[in-house]
Amino acid sequence: MTQLTEHSAPLSSAAALERGRAATFTSAVLRGAFAAGLGLGAIAVLVMAMWITSPFPDSGAGGALRIAAGLWLLGHGVELVRPDTLSGTPAPIGVVPLLLMGLPAWLAYRAARDALEPDEGRPQLTGLGAVCTVSGGYLLVGASAVLYVGDGALTAHPLRAALTLPVLTVLSAAAGAWTAHGCPRLPLPQGLPGAVRRALARTFWAPAGRRRVAVAGRSGAAACLLLVGGGALLVGASLVWHGDPAHTSFVQLAGDWSGRVAVLLLGLALVPNAAVWGAAYGLGPGFALGTTATATPLGVVGTPALPSFPLLAAVPDGPGTPLNWAAAGVPAVAGLAVAWFTVRVAAPPFALREEAWSARGTALTAALGGVVCAGLTAVLAGLAGGPLGSGRLAAFGPVWWLTGAAALAWTVALGVPAALLLRLWRLRERRPKDLPTAEPLPATGAGERTATATTTGAGSGGAESGAPEGAWWRAPWRRPAGRRGAGAAAPGPRAASEGGEAIGGLDILDALDAAEAGAGAGAGGTTGAGAGGTSGTGGTSGAGGTGGTSGAGGTGGTGAGAKEAFDPDFEPYDFLPAESWHERGAREARWAAFKEASGGLMADFPATPGPLAPEPPSLRKGGSDTDENPGGTTP
After folding, report:
1. Is 395:288 a contact under the CB 8 Å cutoff?
2. Cα–Cα distance between 68 and 91 in angstroms, integer?
3. Residues 90, 452: Cα–Cα separation, whole Å
4. What is the pLDDT of residue 522?
């Protein structure tokens, strides 16, 4: 008994946990109800504003609120019924304004996403719990709206509302919960057969398959957007072309400005529907203008039953013309978009053939993008149409399955070949551009090389020797002797006897002078005699060896001459080894520059340091105690 009481949670903690869980569920339900009320209130504000400003209202405030609730339900896809008609037969209204549908979908999405945000001190909901609670609160307000419009001018059948209202709500809430969890990869359904699960795991659910599915989804969505955008462009052009009938219809529908504002708002809400109708028109199947007429690029077949509305006044009439046939450019652009968005990942620009996708994978991804585009287009076509009344007005808008099939045919027939051709073009063999041919340098004889070397040794500037002039920013001690001007004071010959290191009897700086002189004169790879003469007369002692000179001149001439052949502005970098920096001549030049800059405050260059004091015998290498006592006696 004692162990049970020690290891069990206190009753107060359990009660607090239950209270926190109940508060979390209540908060999620209230979020859903608040989202539904916000959308209903926005539509009610617009309707009440129209009712207040109308000079001849047909009903009271209650009737205006019932119309607002009916429009809110229509935005969820609920078909409304107008019971009071001239013929006495109830007239259904099933054309859902797609712009009006976007408001409740966005509100339900935000409510589910916000419900999954962590709250300090409360347990967090799961994704399924958030969808159920938010949808439950939203549907409670929806059920109240269905009951409220039962006695209004626009009524909703309770059974049909129960079938259609939860669809948009649950899908929007599920999308919000999926986004709140970071858009995770969905698992395979458990009810599938084992063979199907294994096949899906090897194809679509594999890493490569998921990437292809993502690319196909983006390409299909882009193609669908282009279809709808092209349809909106067709509708706008038709409205401009039929401007007079559209203006006449707009004026006849309402005489006061409040009524015209209401007609304008309704027309704006139906603009996405008109764009989908235009896309179906460009695809070929067209759209229905009642039960007895269809509008296609080839012409209007049958007798249309068109109510008076500005958007419907823009419907083309009569047989098709080449201007109507030009609407086929919209699906053509959508098919090319599938190819473009597929190949930009399958074979990026300047990609190697080994890194790109195979032709089969590219074609399958483009075909899958066409399937995605066709599915989205079919869904939009089904939502954009519906009945506008009874009898001949029972069917308006595109047929969803015909529109989807036409979109599939256009995107696959154009997208797959275009994707393969674009892939082939990007993976073509690219040849490097021909390099500019170096101009042949004038050949110089041995006598000319000797004369050039003699001129350089006379102390003239680097321009006469062919070497580039020293830059103005270089310090005096960094400039080689052969590149100083005639008036510059050289620190003297840099021979090995003065403490500077030499290579084969030639100082390092003189070797660089010879290399730059050989590069300027174009003597890349010249003989040892020419290089030796150049370096020997450049101010170096006569002990300069021919072999060492020719090695330095030949190496520098080869590298710099090849550079100058392709780049006339090339100037060798004046880089000296560390040994040349510490030689005595360079140190004296630096000290003289420091003394001149100090205004005479610094002393002259110090003389050669005297001999160092002898090291103590104890620190000598190999020293012993007997070194301190030469006699060998013990002190």
Report:
1. yes
2. 18
3. 111
4. 39
- The whole-chain average pLDDT of the chain stands at 75
CB atoms within 10 A of CB 26: 12
Buried (b) or exposed (e) across 72-86, using 16+ Cβ within 10 A? bbbbbbbbbbbeeee
Check whether 532 has a pLDDT greater than 80: no
Contact 81, 389 (CB under 8 A): no
Could you tell me the two tokens for 535? 């370096």
The answer to pTM > 0.85 is no
d(CA 121, CA 133): 19
Q: H or E segment at 294? A: strand 293-296
Q: Is the pLDDT of residue 189 over 50?
A: yes
Q: What is the model's pLDDT at position 430?
A: 56
Distance CA 329, CA 316 (A): 17
Structure tokens at 41: 């209130």
* Burial label, 354 (beta-carbon count in 10 A; 0-12, 13-18, 19+): exposed
Tens-digit pLDDT profile for residues 575-591 = 556 666 667 777 778 77
Question: How far, in Å, CA of 87 to CA of 112, rounded?
Answer: 45
Quote the strand ranges of 46-169, DSSP E. Answer: 80-82, 91-93, 155-156
**Residue 314 CA neighbour count, 13 Å, CB half:** 23
Contact (Cβ atoms closer than 8 angstroms) between residue 352 and residue 251:
no
Residues in the chain: 635
Contacts of 298 (CB under 8 A, 6+ apart): 319, 320, 324, 325
Mean pLDDT calculated for residue range 344-373: 91
Residue type, 623: G
**414-438: buried (b, 16+ CB within 10 Å) or exposed (e) per residue?**
bbbebbbebbeebbeeeeeeeeeee
Torsion of CA 305, 308, 313, 316, to 10 degrees: 10
Q: Which tens digit of pLDDT belongs to each residue from 369-408?
A: 999 999 999 999 999 999 988 888 888 999 999 999 999 9
Beta strands in 463-514 (DSSP E): 502-503, 506-507
